[in-house]
Amino acid sequence: MQVKRQWESAVEPEHHEVFNRLLEDTVVQRFLAWDKKLRVSDKYLLSMVIAYFSRAGLFSWQYQRIHFFLALYLANDMEEDNQAPKQAIFSFLYGKSRVQLPMFHKLRFQLIRSMRWKTWVSRDECEEIQTYDPEHWAWGRDRTLIP
Fold this sequence. Notes:
By secondary structure, the chain is an all-alpha fold. It has one domain (13-135). Helices cover 56% and strands 0% of the residues. The protein has seven helices and no strands. It starts with 12 loop residues before the first helix and ends in a 16-residue tail after the last helix. One of its GO terms (molecular function) is protein kinase binding. It comes from Balaenoptera acutorostrata. The chain crosses the membrane at residues 44-63. InterPro entries: Speedy, Speedy_E.
């Protein structure tokens, strides 16, 4: 007989607060508005951002705009087979310039390391994250509803 392991989320209210604070950032808002087809930032990828914030172990005041984009890039790296969504993040942030890419990847590596390499987020965990505030507008970003 196989026993199903109980899973418990380590996401705290402060991680949701950090996420909400970063969603108020004008650059993040422009990015989310720019991603009209939700190829880079649907509700599950955004849920993964909160999961990564909880795993990284930073104090809530330490999270900056770049952390949002690093976590979103990592979520796309984990879930999407296509390179285009990740390249879209770079294009939005840096335009045609590729000068900042090595630093972005260095910071991404540091984020992964701070999470102790735990980058996989289950669909159940994403859905649990969304139940913290089920009416939040970000959870309406459902890719399956776009024609």
